[in-house]
Amino acid sequence: MSLKDLLVSKAKVTEEEIKETIDGYVGYDADALEVVLLPGSAKLDATKKILLYLVALRGWRYVVDAPPKVAAKPGEISEHLGIGGGTVRPVLKKLKEGRVVRKKGGEYMVPEHNFHYVRELVRGAKEQTVRRPGERAKRKGLGTQTRSEKDKTGPKALVRELISDGFFAEGRTLGDVRAALDRDRGYKCLVTSLSGPMRELVRGKRLKRRKVKRQKGEVYEYVQAG
């Protein structure tokens, strides 16, 4: 395998991460150039709504030709989300201190490398198990798993087993993969935790990825390579 096999489009990866993070919670009104909260966000707390809003702002470049700004001031966030300024400002301060968001010129934004953190937090992972940016894992008991150990027991290894079983003879979405791991392997996980392992298997030419249209819009399907 040459280094050319590792070529990826950063823009495509970023667009996919944004979609996976905000899907079902916020949408775009291209006419009014506004980010709109969807019914799925109703039960989320203020912190998650603010993070989703800021991540959605980063996605405007993939929606319209002349995207509006990708950051927002506390007052703008408060107005768009209907959350009082007395709540928005302390949340932003805490997120900034935790290096989840950045502040520049009075405006706040979520850096690309923190999209995964926001996605895991919003999608239901317990907050204490989602490591904040820059936070190191604490050793407990005999210590944490090494990378090689995770490769043998984690989702990537289990997906390899599905490949060997012919599961990807037809196109499968991340939701299909998650359901199969739960049903056939007794492995429960978030859909978003599969994105990284699936990308690695695509880069390693074990799988191919293609975009298809479904009732809820365009999604990626994975099919066995070769």
Fold blueprint:
Layout: H1 10-22, E1 26-29, E2 34-37, H2 46-58, H3 74-81, H4 85-97, E3 102-104, E4 107-109, H5 115-122, H6 147-153, H7 155-164, H8 174-185, H9 195-203, E5 207-214, E6 217-224
Antiparallel strand pairs: 1-2, 3-4, 5-6
Describe, in plain words, how this protein is organized in 3D.
- The protein has 226 residues and is α+β, with helices and mostly antiparallel strands.
- The chain has two domains: 3-129, Arc Repressor Mutant, subunit A, CATH 1.10.10.10; 147-224, Winged helix-like DNA-binding domain superfamily/Winged helix DNA-binding domain (Arc Repressor Mutant, subunit A, Orthogonal Bundle), CATH 1.10.10.
- It is 41% helix and 13% strand.
- It has nine helices and six strands, in the order αββαααββαααααββ.
- It has helices at residues 10-22, 46-58, 74-81, 85-97, 115-122, 147-153, 155-164, 174-185, 195-203; strands at residues 26-29, 34-37, 102-104, 107-109, 207-214, 217-224.
- Strands 1-2 form a two-stranded antiparallel ribbon. Strands 3-4 form a two-stranded antiparallel sheet.
- Helix 2 packs across helix 5 (115-122) and helix 3 packs across helix 4 (85-97).
- The chain is elongated.
- 23% of the residues are buried.
- The model is unreliable at 125-130 and 137-145 (pLDDT under 50).
